[in-house]
Amino acid sequence: MSWTHDDLPDLTGRTAVVTGANSGIGLHTARRLAEHGASVVLACRNVESAQQAAATMQAGSDGATRVEPLDLASLSSVRDFAARWQGPLDLLVNNAGVMTPPHYRETEDGFELQLGTNHLGHFALTGLLLPALLESAAPRVVTVSSIAHHDGRPTVLEGNPESTYQPQRAYGNSKLANLLFARELHKRATAAASPLVSTAGHPGVSATELVADPNGMGSRRIVRLAAPYVMPLLFQSAAAGANPTLYAATAAAPGSYTGPQWLRETRGPIGPAKLSRYAQDDELALKLWELSELRTGVELAL
Fold it and tell me: What gap in Å lies between CA 72 and CA 82, rounded to an integer?
């Protein structure tokens, strides 16, 4: 379809949280939501960078923006963020992520960094913000996955242990977990006749700061230095990469998964994205959900 951010509806009166909104896909997602009237909270680990990003959004936006500290690699930070929240929440965009650190690393709580940040942190955040979401008349949760989810396997249940750590496979597992979570959340919301809508999207391959992030591939100096010059030549812009997320946030059908349609979903106009066979495994989704509740200590009751 030819949908772009220009097709966003008026979002005046709606409140959104976008994780990792200080750069890349998250920044463009937050900016477009604010331009169309939403009040947007930039939930970020790097508060200084997020404040700079928020300042650039204010001039051309109808909606308000503010920054709140959130480190998804720390369950205590997630809990603190949720405890500070007041009032209804209309939209939660689970966007932040870490990609392929070359060596095994752990979160503050002892989880492998990618699974802990990309999935478990967002799982806990969604659960803890669920009461606020259910105060909204039309709440929506968007989870950002990746074409890399096709690299994910049922070993995601093992938590990406250090003994078998492979950067790309661990990243693929975390992105598979994102999709399994989004689909199981949709299934549970439907069964509970809840107004909550769960959707997912992926940006294709976009030129973002995720590659240069020192917590991921950017821990290699050559990658960190080369990425700003090489990425824009090879990949679509971060602004284009945000379109699937924005569509999932405002127009996509419940339970859907949206992504670019060209060149094996790496770029181009948006439409239905392809799910791996593991992403469609309802039993795997249920097992992951139960393990995620156990690991985070957060239960999601709709």
Answer: 12
Tokens of 33: 């939501």
pTM: 0.91
Q: How far apart are CA 57 and CA 80, in angstroms?
A: 26
**Window from 49-53, 133-137, 155-159, 237-241 with minimum mean pLDDT:** 237-241
Domain boundaries, the chain: 5-204+239-296
Query: Cβ(153)–Cβ(115) under 8 Å?
Result: no
CA atoms within 13 A on the CB side of 94: 32
Q: Which residues are catalytic?
A: 171
Work out the number of other CB atoms within 10 angstroms of the CB of residue 83. 9
Decide: 133 and 141 in contact? Cβ < 8 Å: yes
Is-contact 252 201, C-beta < 8 A?
yes
CATH no., domain 5-204+239-296: 3.40.50.720
pLDDT tens, residue by residue, 162-192:
999 999 999 999 999 999 999 999 999 999 9
Question: In the prediction, which pLDDT does 81 show?
Answer: 98
Which residues are CB-neighbours of 167 under 8 A, at least 6 positions away?
Answer: 100, 101, 102
Query: HSE-up of 101 (CA within 13 Å, CB side)?
Result: 23
- Nearest alpha-carbon partner for 65 in 134, 11, 109: 11
Place of tokens 């439907």: 190
Q: Are 51 and 67 in contact (CB under 8 A)?
A: yes
End-to-end CA distance of the chain: 33
**Cα–Cα nearest to 96, from 165, 152, 219, 178:** 178
Average pLDDT over residues 65-91: 98
* Cα(300)–Cα(131) distance, integer angstroms: 10
